[in-house]
Amino acid sequence: MNAFLGNYLIGLREGLEATLVVSILVAFLVKTDRRRVLPQVWLGVGVAVALSIGFGAFLFYISDVLSYRQRELFEAVTSIAAVVFVTWMIFWMRKFARSLAKDLRTKLDEAVTVGTAAVVTMAFLAVVREGLETATLFFAAAQGAATTAGPLLGIAAGLVTSVLLGWLIYASAVRINLTVFFTVTGTLLVLVAAGILKYGVHDLQEAGVLPGLDNLAFDISPWYDPTTWYGSLLGGMFNVTPTPSKAEVAAWVAYAVPVLVLFLRRPRAATRPAAPQPAVDASPAS
């Protein structure tokens, strides 16, 4: 259970974004009777997936060959980069979700007119961002786990679930409120990112870049056992530890509180409220 749920959430959220993007592209080509272009889209998607997997493997390889201090510093930088990625991602999706389908269709239409290379490149760029973010987040989230088995199973299960949901949405077999989905998962991801940032600060202290490793904020180890089911859940999801340093706690609070407030803050009400609509239309023509 340790680190499984946190990585499952990352795989589900990032995977569904990528799956929805692919569904929009495929549905657009099907509706406009341009199925001949589908292999080019799948080629771009396949290259993006391969690059993302290779990037993730590269991160783990680099971490293994570095010295202890270099590895701690590398993991700290990667953790901070992952926090930046996830923060940018959740706010970007909240802002552009409603126009995502239209923008993708416009870009794909232009790419089809240009030629094969443009279609492959467009599909590649549409997916590779989520793929590289997923690899970075997975690497950062997996550092706090005792083994890579839990994080790997979590990320794989999340990706499989996202692909299944994306296919069901494409086939119109299921409808979900994407606004609610991305709000809930975004809120949880903010807490996951706060835990990753906390771990990054811990790594900086381990590497000697930041002081105060032994300056504890509190010690709850007498009654908090990280090996219990709830300890594994809180540790794997949000990096809750029984003896955090003051710098770790300060980083967690300084990130989580303002980001959650900004993310959950309702946008200014429009002059005339509009009926709720799904974020994307990924269903093919019947």
UniProtKB/TrEMBL annotation:
Reading the lineage from the top rank, the first entry is: Bacteria
> Key word Transmembrane helix present in the record?
yes
Record keywords: Membrane, Transmembrane, Transmembrane helix
InterPro entries reported for this sequence: FTR1/Fip1/EfeU
Q: Name one Pfam family in it.
A: FTR1
Where is it located? Membrane
Membrane-related topology note: Multi-pass membrane protein
Query: Where do transmembrane segments lie in this chain?
Result: 6-29, 41-61, 73-91, 111-128, 148-171, 178-201, 247-264
Q: Does the keyword Membrane apply?
A: yes
Q: Which family does it belong to?
A: Belongs to the oxidase-dependent Fe transporter (OFeT) (TC 9.A.10.1) family.
Protein name according to UniProt: FTR1 family protein
Species per Swiss-Prot/TrEMBL record: Luedemannella flava
